[in-house]
Amino acid sequence: xxxxxxxxxxxxxxxxxxxxxxxxxxxxxxxxxxxxxxxxxxxxxxxxxxxxxxxxxxxxxxxxxxxxxxxxxxxxxxxxxxxxxxxxxxxxxxxxxxxxxxxxxxxxxxxxxxxxxxxxxxxxxxxxxxxxxxxxxxxxxxxxxxxxxxxxxxxxxxxxxxxxxxxxxxxxxxxxxxxxxxxxxxxxxxxxxxxxxxxxxxxxxxxxxxxxxxxxxxxxxxxxxxxxxxxxxxxxxxxxxxxxxxxxxxxxxxxxxxxxxxxxxxxxxxxxxxxxxxxxxxxxxxxxxxxxxxxxxxxxxxxxxxxxxxxxxxxxxxxxxxxxxxxxxxxxxxxxxxxxxxxxxxxxxxxxxxxxxxxxxxxxxxxxxxxxxxxxxxxxxxxxxxxxxxxxxxxxxxxxxxxxxxxxxxxxxxxxxxxxxxxxxxxxxxxxxxxxxxxxxxxxxxxxxxxxxxxxxxxxxxxxxxxxxxxxxxxxxxxxxxxxxxxxxxxxxxxxxxxxxxxxxxxxxxxxxxxxxxxxxxxxxxxxxxxxxxxxxxxxxxxxxxxxxxxxxxxxxxxxxxxxxxxxxxxxxxxxxxxxxxxxxxxxxxxxxxxxxxxxxxxxxxxxxxxxxxxxxxxxxxxxxxxxxxxxxxxxxxxxxxxxxxxxxxxxxx
Length: 654
Prior knowledge:
By secondary structure, the chain is of the alpha+beta class. Among the domains are: 3-255, Beta-galactosidase, Chain A, domain 5 (Distorted Sandwich); 308-348 and 370-523, Glycosyltransferase, CATH 1.50.10. The chain is built from 16 helices and 31 strands.
């Protein structure tokens, strides 16, 4: 089940599923060490002998408080006669998750309501060797293993309070965990458990007829017991309401750092734009790694996740953030990239947020030949994004240490790693990570990366390097026109592959062909580009369904088969927004921008009510497939809207 309403601070990230169950808890890095790992942390209610855990039985509306990373969840249960309003956040400064619950008794008589919060932590991602115990020093339950500590507490009125608790064994010899113990409304009070363990705490409320009482639960995350003590002290001194309120103010100021008008765009798009910025921030580790997605539900498909830093995704995300002047985040990313770049000047497939090499399916040997397991566009786009970063901020002292460590090493690799006969980049894997060849998207990215490197070489007075990078970029552009352009169809091929010494064009329509415009190799008005993008719109638009643009013809990834209405694949938010960016680039009057606005409105239509945007949707019903939120999708929304606003201001009224 894809994720919704993530909250975090760059060190602690909490993600909920569509049923408002906490399913992912990352600490101390965003994207690494998921201590929930898809196992639910449950919220339950006992009333007059009846019990229900938060889930499908509850009616829910899941959103954020306006322009914040504080959730606003409305829930009700007809059978229990309860209505809830909940706010969740992670403190912007401390590693404290806070849940505020306002419980309303809908009956016309006083009733006792027992509220339970059950944790199912799998510290370090597994259930072996943990300890859960009640700590009288802090009046919390603590679950620890090695250098990972989670504390769980509750607050009612003016102070911390736990009326019931229990620790126990789970996932061993038929034991399900202490959450089962809560379902009769009474916890046994076991003070400590060791091995595969969990814990549950409860608070007893007496609520008058039609009345409301407020309760808070919290989770503190640390690497030592003394850190848990400090977090408990912060909670006692400030109280959960002050922490929640200060975090709300912080994110409201963060997302409104600069006043901006949105002429011609609906209030819904304006709201989605700001939510996208906030959601992007939850997916970025404070150490600089931009994580693709933190939805562990995808584990069921291949026992792996999207919780990695792809340099391509990260470059596009920080390009979007730089346009909104979040300079610290982008700076951290470029420093991270300089640390993980191979000595030879290229990035490998993807990385963990601590800088270690992540899992990969790209082989080091192919057809009995050693090959680099890379997607070269990833190397190129980091330089492309860095060029835009400098062009906006002119912070040359930031660029100086990156010039030798990142820029020239990557540029020298790209200039060298080319076919001697054609001048094009050598084959690498495509942006969709499926096939090896010489791809239009990669070629245009390498052109942009070398152009950026030439700019920096000129900036630092390195004329010889400047000329070499410029020449390589121009040779790539010339070869693209000669080899990737197909005169018969009047459009560009998505890929070249060499077979028995002959270059073959793959004319499959692919949304990635927009890279030829996106990265500046060709103008949007070039007739060859116009024909190419017309084919993208014509062949990849989903008809008789949701609409939206698929990745490419015959895309099999998570494909929903439609026997009566064949479709090229599932619609992707990224690809649909690329078409919108193309329409903006071609617009000559403000009236022309209407086609782009229609596509942005399509994204708004299929975004979650909370504002989260996933990777792709079911073409029949719009339900989310694969991961959500996808950081790249949100960044393309930000790029598209900022492109639109820039174009609007530069165009006259027709």
